Amino acid sequence: MxxxxxxxxxxxxxxxxxxxxxxxxxxxxxxxxxxxMRLEWLQSGAIADDMKQIxxxxxxxxxxxxxxxxxxxxxxxxxxxxxxxxxxxxxxxPPLPGPEFDPYKIINxxxxxxxxAGKLYYYLYPTGEFNVAPIEGTANGKLVIDxxxxxxxxxxxxxxxTVENGRVVKIDGGADARILRxxxxxxxxxxxxxxxxxxxxxxxxxxxxxxxxxxxKNIMGTMHFGLGTNVDVGGSIMSKIHMDGVxxxxxxxxxxxxxxxxxxxxVPIEGEx
Length: 273
What we know:
alpha+beta
């Protein structure tokens, strides 16, 4: 590849696709404007938040919500989510931003986020998530996606995923569930049903519901869960797809202690002061 940078402007998420992964591995960054961003959304909402404060929140979500010693997470929601998974030895706390912080710096995931991962070399525009790649094969329960999902956009009805030992075994719901089943059958592979590829927390205070994953998954207090590829975020799974689904107001327990309730943080994440 001879390009200096790849700008992703597609109608769905492209960061985790094979071409993007290969280019990032070659040292060519991907700038993500994907998922159906509109011109006016480059002036308001998530894109307008303070990038330095987002970095502060990511540090304190790692430290205060999870902690490096975190082992087990349980997520519930008003739509019936009751979902557990292991994060033992998979939580890394990003450093606090220093005086030299550059809000527009291309991110080297391993170096800048203080964690082992694949060759993620990127800028998410907009951004605002704390990312964890749970231990594969440990997740069980009902995971109900209620807001937005890759490829589908804003959901007309919740999608209920039944997960056994880290694999989706059943997809229930209305029309959106049917679309997801058909999409995975047509474009996925065996690893596309691995879940969760990631389990991430939104930390962008200005993000609003747009009906696209690029913005919605960053909304403060949301959680989103991935299907498929996670080799680039610290896991070991490679798939033809990576699809995130967003829960708007989750409740999160870490080792039995409630840390987020209905999308509200119960511990400080804005800084020690």
